[in-house]
Amino acid sequence: MTNNMEITEDYVSFEVAKLLKEKGFDVRCNTYYISDNEIAALPITRDFNNHGIYLSAPTHQMAMKWLREVHGLFISIGNDDLGYNWQIMDVENRTDNGDPTYLTESYAGYKSYEDAVEAALKYSLSEKINL
User: Fold this and answer.
1) Assigned domain for 84 exists
2) What are the pLDDT digits (tens) for 6-44?
3) Number of domains the chain is built from
4) Is position 89 within any domain?
5) Exposure pattern of 36-67 as b/e (b: 16+ CB <10 Å)?
């Protein structure tokens, strides 16, 4: 049995890329937004947010890792009978028994993993979560 599925990287939306820049995202990547719907790539990595006129376009996983490692926010993605869901936890400020502090309820009903990640990133970078 062969599977002809092509797996590609999923990049943050232009809206999330702008929010990441506002919050100080300075990770080197090789993709950047030329316009609100066009991503370009270079064979080298660069911090486009702080060098040049373009906007860094990281993958979903790069953005999630940055939130986790720089801000202590963990985005959990799940799947159940309601579809994909997400929840945000603060892994640096734990409860008395060592559990992470939940910053949100679980938001469900997304049709894809990528849709859930995008929604969680938007929420994490909004004014509702203080970075």
Assistant:
1) yes
2) 888 899 999 999 999 999 999 999 999 999 989 999 999
3) 1
4) yes
5) eeebeeeeeebebbeeeebbbbbebebbbebb
Quote the pTM value: 0.90
Whether residue 1 is contained in a domain is answered as no
- The end-to-end CA distance of the chain, in Å, is 47
Half-sphere exposure at residue 111, Cβ-oriented, CA atoms within 13 angstroms: 0
How far apart, in whole angstroms, are the C-alpha atoms of residue 13 and residue 58? 9
Q: What residue type is 61 in one-letter code?
A: Q
Q: What is the rounded CA–CA span in Å between residue 118 and residue 131?
A: 18
Do the domain assignments include residue 6? no
